[in-house]
Amino acid sequence: MGEPAVHPGDGPGEKHTPTTRVALLASVAALGGFLFGFDTAVINGAVGALEKVFTAHAAAVGLAVSSALLGAAAGAVIAGRLADRFGRTRTMLATALLFVGSAAGSGAAMSPWGFSAWRALGGVAIGAASVVAPAYIAEIAPAHLRGRLGSLQQLAIVVGIFVALLGDYAIASAAGSAASPFWLGASAWRWMFWSAIPPALLYGIGALLIPESPRYLAAKGRMDEALAVLRGLLGAGAARAKLRDVQRTLSSERRPRLADLRGRHGVLPIVWIGVGLSAFQQLVGINVIFYYSSVLWQAVGFSERSSLAITVITGVTNIATTLVAIATVDRVGRRPLLLAGSVGMTLTLGAMTAVFGTAGVDAAGNPVLRGAAGTAALLAANLYVFCFGASWGPVTWVLLGEMFNNRIRALALSIAAAAQWLANFLVSATFPALKQAGLGVAYGLYTAAAAASLAFVVAFIPETKGKELEDM
């Protein structure tokens, strides 16, 4: 690789760090996270309407809700290779176009199978966004800001979830129900999906405006461009030193292959740790709250409008707690937040298991929460979201963006993200059947997963606070 040209001001005394610029670039990349959250959660308000319009049984509903997650697993696997071959920003642009196509097709679908196919296409975009955004943010962020900027991905996800849920509530309320006609005579649930088109277009425009990752540019031998980007991110003084560090870690790099993930005794332990971290983030059942909560609260006696309002409140809770995580992740560290979150989730999920496991049932087999039981379930659900949002939600993405070294980051992150989406699919696809078997059973399984996540963190998760990516 050639040496970059020397520029005035590349001296060791230059200390300026343009934090605002770095934050703006990270925010544009995190728009992929917004669409990730929006696209996965928008289904919440439409589940009941889909059941009626397509006269679907539990298995078909589970597939309709979770088909995006299968697509996400595929998108996560291919995104790393695409990002390494074509660049982070071009991959973001392609992802934005997939989001637009999926939103348009899902809203126009005329059968459950067509709907599932369009959702799966959107899932490819979701999976790609789950890989490219944290990789890009980690590669442009200074070490002392990387935890907070990496948490922007999760903040964008939860804001996307909240906006989708709020939009579902507003559209269903204006139309009378999700299945009722809305603008231009199209059903309200169709407009729920079409509302994703404007932010997807904005994401595409943003991808055209932000600079390419300096690590990608250096890997392609484009040293002058890499140095120019680094000077804009770190200031002139730190840019050349950072580029030398990047060159050092990339000096023996070649195109990543699956063989790169193998060590002396099989797959590298750090890759398994990333896979386990990703899987546990989903096995605790968090997305049951965001995909099914409206039908869940209706099942225990709340009206459709009240259920959607409760879900919006849960979305606000999720945003607030993610802000707590962003404020503390670089001070407290990654590992302590995960430990505290696992303990809190085990306790709150255990409370929900007890409430639903002891509830009576009505003639349709739905649980009936009387008196204080309903309040206890709502309180436990929101405390559970608080514990997740302040820990496992954002910290998982921070760790996945920084725990792998430069040589394997994109590929290893793809594998870990794919594992996350497969675990998400498992939880989401099985919940309708578990709900029929009894909510106490479902939440009992999620409680066990939360307890297991605590043991996993104690045994395997390293602390990465303050470390440079080149030192991983």
Characterization of the model:
This protein has 472 residues and is mostly helical. It has one domain: MFS general substrate transporter like domains (Growth Hormone, Chain: A), CATH 1.20.1250. 76% of the residues lie in helices and 2% in strands. The chain contains 19 helices and four strands. It has helices spanning 19-41, 47-53, 58-86, 88-108, 112-140, 143-175, 188-194, 197-209, 214-219, 223-234, 236-250, 269-283, 286-299, 304-332, 334-357, 372-389, 392-402, 409-437, 439-460, and strands at 262-263, 266-267, 360-361, 367-368. Strands 1-2 form a two-stranded antiparallel sheet. The chain has a two-stranded antiparallel ribbon with strand order 3-4. Strand 1 (262-263) and strand 2 (266-267) form a beta hairpin. Helix 15 (334-357) runs antiparallel to helix 17 (392-402). The two termini are 22 Å apart.
